[in-house]
Amino acid sequence: xxxxxxxxxxxxxxxxxxxxxxxxxxxxxxxxxxxxxxxxxxxxxxxxxxxxxxxxxxxxxxxxxxxxxxxxxxxxxxxxxxxxxxxxxxxxxxxxxxxxxxxxxxxxxxxxxxxxxxxxxxxxxxxxxxxxxxxxxxxxxxxxxxxxxxxxxxxxxxxxxxxxxxxxxxxxxxxxxxxxxxxxxxxxxxxxxxxxxxxxxxxxxxxxxxxxxxxxxxxxxxxxxxxxxxxxxxxxxxxxxxxxxxxxxxxxxxxxxxxxxxxxxxxx
Length: 268
Prior knowledge:
- By secondary structure, the chain is α+β, with helices and mostly antiparallel strands.
- Helix content is 61%, strand content 8%.
- The chain has helices at 3-17, 24-34, 43-59, 73-87, 108-117, 138-148, 151-200, 209-220, 226-233, 237-251; strands at 88-91, 98-103, 123-127, 130-135.
């Protein structure tokens, strides 16, 4: 990832870590999602876990452990937020979204099933003795982060994705237009060469009026498109195209070219 992309992911994680759930049940759920201790995480995760455990002790001292099955959606979102902060990572490299959780191997299928229930289809596998749960679906990952509470940073993520998509579409259109222009320039060059050839050997003057009219218009405006020639001459575009194709075709053959007068045999 670029520095800018890393900074954006950091901002997104910081936004999630700064959330203090308003419901006691959500506090319990997020504490459970964080696990007994943050593993391989920055100090802010330890502070978050400590803060939420204090909230849980103050708000819900009698509540039992979190149970996913009967839990409401907001509780599930809080649990997944905690699991992401403790065990998840997000990559935005090159405009591609990659969400990954690294968990104990026995947890991987359970987490995958919970994410699927949450509307986030994922895949899971074992890698070097650990369970790895991943999703590369940008839209689904965006839905997950929004429901987990990262609405602010997510707006920036989506804005960058839209901007990147627009740049890609603009480049595609410009490349297509450039290719079309190149083809048009090449075609006009061939047509002008054909007109010169036919005029030089006298065949241009023997062509139908429309063909001669199109040839003259092409000479006067070599940069004009077929549609522009048709508008100028007030004829159909297809008539212009047929006339120019006829000129090129005739120039490629000398069948109809007038030859020198035949010599009469000498009298004996």
